[in-house]
Amino acid sequence: MSELRTEEYHLSMGPQHPSTHGVLRLILKLDGEVIKEAIPDMGYLHRGVEKMMENRVYIQIIPFVDRLDYLAAMNNNLAVVLPVEKLANITPPPRAEYIRVIMCELNRIASHLVWLGTFALDLGAVTPFLYCFREREPIMDLFEMAVGSRLTYNYIRYGGVASDISDEFIRDTKAFLSYFRPRIDEYEALLTENPIFLQRTKNVGIIEAKQAVAYGISGPMLRASGVRRDLRRALPYSVYDKFTFDIPTGTVGDCWDRYIVRIREMRESVKIVEQALAGLPAGGFKIKVPLNLKPLAGEAYVPTESPRGELGFYFVSHGTNKPYRMKCRAPSFCNMNILQEMLKGWKIADVVAVLGTVDVMLGEVDR
Prior knowledge:
NDH-1 is composed of 14 different subunits. Subunits NuoB, C, D, E, F, and G constitute the peripheral sector of the complex. The chain is an alpha+beta fold and 367 residues long. It has a single domain (8-364), classed as Cytochrome-c3 Hydrogenase, chain B (Orthogonal Bundle), CATH 1.10.645.10. The protein has 14 helices and nine strands.
């Protein structure tokens, strides 16, 4: 009796596949439905952002980073401003620091909402997608009120922020936070204990803590594996050390843990914004910084906690009005590398769930 054998073959998933969220291509080596090897091909943008920034004066750099992670542009603004301020010995006023935190945490909530909605949609749940985008709209309204735009902001500047926030902004932000907290309970009611959702996410795509650290994973993916590291607490920047908040962590490091960590992070961001609004100091929102800024010669790197993990910009200055060298440490790029290990042994249907919990942003991958 002859043995039944299957033939290995390669399947290209993406970059047109809707679940790859951009221009990611996964080259899957399959034995039937089982994945033997998964190779991410991330080079489809080729924008050369880092080199472009090295040929711009410092004030022209900020709008570029809005487009690296366009779902968390405020966090990118802050990350690129901090090392330049360090080189130039610039200290923003206290009010500006509080405004920065408010904007970054609101943007963290908005980013997690897009992730949660699209992740649920990838798994076949339409209602959470509609709910998440319903809640994201008021945040975009707040940003439009303060900045004048809804996606890319160019708001956080060297020495402060572009404009002060109004009493109307403060009032509407407080109203949003009161409205939003029970909405998180709605998301959990739909998903957290849902049998189908549990079957698709529990014990799927496990990353052990040692493995996550070895691969340089950061952000919610790292914390979902049980590593309690959040740069807002571990290496405090801006005024994050003035606020009380928890660091949600998982235990197994599977898709479900990565989901619940982000759910809980939204709750913590609400707490931070409430504290920042309550303690918002009076005073100026920006100090005077020359348009033709020339930081001192030297180098600086300030790691920050973006919604996807450690985001930092390394600058080398020769004392001119343009950086000699600039390098972006993008969390999505580092987090993507472990996909090869996460997908081995799983089936094609699991790729969508595992990839979704990485929360990849292709704009900051192929820079």
